[in-house]
Amino acid sequence: MQVVAIAIPAIYRSTVGKKAVMAVTGGILVLYLVAHMIGNLKIFLGAEDFNHYAHWLRTMGEPAVPRRTVLTIIELVLGASIVLHMWSAVSLARRASAARPVKYQSKKKSHAQGYATRTMRYGGVIIAVYVIWHLLDLTFFVVNPKGADATPYQRVVADFDPSRWYITVWYVVAVLLVGLHLNHGIWSAFQTLGMRSPRSHNALRGLAATTAALVTLGFVAVPVSITFGWVS
């Protein structure tokens, strides 16, 4: 057991270990986003179905376990995945920077990598701010117009009321950045896990882009539909 306890931190300190952690935690986050998106789309089925879904999230496992136990476990796993994912990304970026003190001679390559780096870095900050706002809004009800006394359906509709169009814009921008992260992250995970080859390159690229696009559209559909009055 002691050998295992020593080996795990040693593995994580390696570049391969950090990339593996990023791939695994990224996979957990992708699965969560897909499940969350599907749940959000239930709003198109009406208030009753959406409220029932929100209630089910908090009562999963009852009566075997107390209310909200399963949801809390999921949240803890997600929280740990986010921290490990971000920490691994920062560590890898610093390690790459330290190992490459001389800039690339190819302008095309450096411009492309610089764009990707800036997008992931600043996009990550915006996404982090959005996640905090989202928790304050629909988990703790601090910034939601309807507050804790309203139903889940009423809170979501109030959030994206046409008079609050700026919230919809903010949400859409954050989701678009999530889509960019997904596209880049899924493709990177394929590379890290050794799935990329000349033969599978285009298929995996397409899978990453398609998954990112579907998740983005699924999340954007709800606020846009409410703001334009298609859901009320």
From TrEMBL:
Signal sequence segment: none
Transmembrane segments: 20-39, 70-93, 122-143, 163-182, 203-231
One GO CC term, this protein: membrane
UniProt keyword annotation of rRNA-binding present: no
Residue ranges the record marks as coiled coil: none
InterPro entries linked: Cytochrome_b-558, SQR/QFR_C/D, SuccDH_FuR_B_TM-su
GO MF annotation terms: metal ion binding
Localization per record: Membrane
Keyword Phosphoprotein belongs to the record: no
Keywords per UniProt: Heme, Iron, Membrane, Metal-binding, Transmembrane, Transmembrane helix
Domain of life: Bacteria
Name of the protein: Succinate dehydrogenase / fumarate reductase cytochrome b subunit
Record organism: Actinomadura mexicana
Species classification: Bacteria, Bacillati, Actinomycetota, Actinomycetes, Streptosporangiales
